[in-house]
Amino acid sequence: MGVAIGDLLEREELSEGELKGKIIAFDAYNVIYQFITTIRGRDGKPLSDMNGNVTSHLSGVLYRTAGFIEEGIKPVFVFDGIPPELKAETIEKRREIRDEAHEKWISALERGDMAEILKYSQAAVKIDPQIIDESKMLLNMMGIPVVVAPSEGEAQASFMAEKGDVDYVSSQDYDAFVFGAKTVIRNLTVSGKRKVAGKNVYIDVLPEKVILEKNLNRLGVTRDQFTDIALCIGTDFNKGIDRVGAKTALKLIKEYGSFEAVLKSKGQDSQIERYAAAKEFFNHPPTTSDYTLKWERPDKEKMIEFLCGKRDFSESRIISAWEKINAAFETKTKQPTLDQWF
After folding, report:
1. DSSP label at 84?
2. Residues 63-88: pLDDT tens digits?
3. Span 299-318, average pLDDT
């Protein structure tokens, strides 16, 4: 998902309390995808209520967001709008991959192959409209701002950061940089232990930040050339050059200066128009200023009615999460200097 440019970027560890008081725009689709893929049972299926409704996304949104609030972070969730036509091929390819993974998951279940069950169940994840709608509804009950982008969520989040309405963009992908973000926070929703693929080894996954300007200076490229590197690797909006990864793309752009020159050197002049269209989308994506960032007290009754009454959550755990969020407002009343945050 997104552009595979991460191998070129250096990351920095976050110091303790560094994000306290910061407004962070989360790429909502990216976050929900993480919750659905990681919050699962041993059979690889996402958590669900007694009626079969998926609840993994609700667990993630509730408990992780409450944790952010407790840490002093002010989250904003930015949802995708209408995908651009340029993305149609990528969307279709992802559908085919999901369908194939679903078949392999079913086969693995029949064999009882636990490693394959986990692998293919995650690849078969589909985020349907109900999951998105329920996530928005729960966030509203929790008093967390929700912004719906005209098109790509990461483009909207990057726009909001450029305006100064949010401090950082949070995403596991690197597309936000190509859309103009200056700093991206990673691993906020997936921190902890992660199993290394194909090995019985676990590594620590800690929150980190990636600062674009520092990386551009280190790599010796401009912001515009960085976008061209992404285009040569391949993005959601263009295929990329065969057998060209991040390091090779960097070398080519340094040698030829632009994606147009690289394509001409490889006799792929016919691709220039498609690359140019993708670059234009990255440079001028649809965004909106029609949003309000306002954090409100969480509605305990509505949270209990929905999560406990309709989705079989434990009332004590819902109340515990509600208390974490509500405590931010109680703190505000005792410390007027925090008024700017609520």
Report:
1. P
2. 999 999 999 999 999 999 999 998 98
3. 97
CA nearest neighbour of 321 among 341, 304, 335, 305 = 304
Q: What separation in angstroms does the CA of 306 have from each of 18, 277, 298, 311, 312?
A: 34, 44, 13, 7, 9
263 or 335: which carries more pLDDT confidence?
263
* Residue 57 and residue 130 in contact, taking contact as beta carbons nearer than 8 Å: no
* pLDDT the model gives residue 46: 86
Rounded to 5 degrees, φ, ψ at 46 are -65, 160
The crossing angle, in degrees rounded to 10, of helices 28-38 and 56-70 is 120
Q: Which pLDDT does position 339 carry in this prediction?
A: 46
Q: Tell how strand 202-205 and strand 74-79 pair up.
A: unpaired
Which residue from 262, 266, 253, 264 is spatially nearest to 226, judged by alpha carbons?
A: 253
Residue matched to tokens 């306002």: 294
What mean pLDDT comes out for the span 36-43?
82
For residue 160, give the nearest of 58, 297, 28 by alpha carbon: 28
How far is the C-alpha of 193 from the C-alpha of 88, rounded, in Å?
35
Q: Of 186, 184, 185, give the one whose Cα is nearest residue 176.
A: 184
